[in-house]
Amino acid sequence: MTLTAATANLVRQVRGLAGELHPRLYPVSVRVRLAGTGPALALCEVWTGDGDAMWVHRCDLPAAVGRTMLDLESALIEAGYVFSLTDQRRPKWRYDANGYGTYTLDITRPIPL
């Protein structure tokens, strides 16, 4: 699969997460918000759980802005992350109407070799 420059930049940012996040920070989630009614992302953030069971905003993924959820899913897979799937074999995004219409995907980081 040939990656475009924008997709390759997104993959680089996602791969960099594994080295930046402490191994004991679990769970890890990616939270996105769509730009209007189209598929483009307006926001992409990484959140982690801490020892007190609190969610903490860790960083933004600016390369995801303007991309789609499918682009982000592909970048996560390319970078070695995994996530749960629905019965229809689609990524298991959670929608939060109270969180300004955000979608959250729980991800598992790759194990360093």
Textual characterization of the structure:
With 113 residues, the chain is an alpha+beta fold. The protein has one domain. Helices cover 23% and strands 30% of the residues. The protein has two helices and six strands. The chain has helices spanning 5-20, 69-78, and strands at residues 28-34, 41-49, 55-60, 82-83, 94-96, 102-108. Strands 1, 2, 3, 4, 5 and 6 form a six-stranded antiparallel β-sheet that branches. Strand 2 (41-49) and strand 3 form a beta hairpin. The radius of gyration is 14 Å and the shape is globular.
Low-confidence parts = none
Question: What's the SSE pattern?
Answer: HEEEHEEE
Termini separation (Å)?
A: 23 Å
Counting structural domains, the number is 1
What is the assembly state of the chains in this entry?
single chain
How large is the share of residues in beta strands? 25-35%
Tell me roughly what share of residues is in helical segments. Answer: 10-25%
Classify the secondary structure makeup into a structural class: alpha+beta
The number of helical elements comes to 2
Instruction: Give the total of beta strands.
Output: 6
Mean pLDDT across all residues, rounded?
85
Largest sheet: 6 strands, antiparallel
Cα gyration radius (Å): 14 Å
Overall form: globular
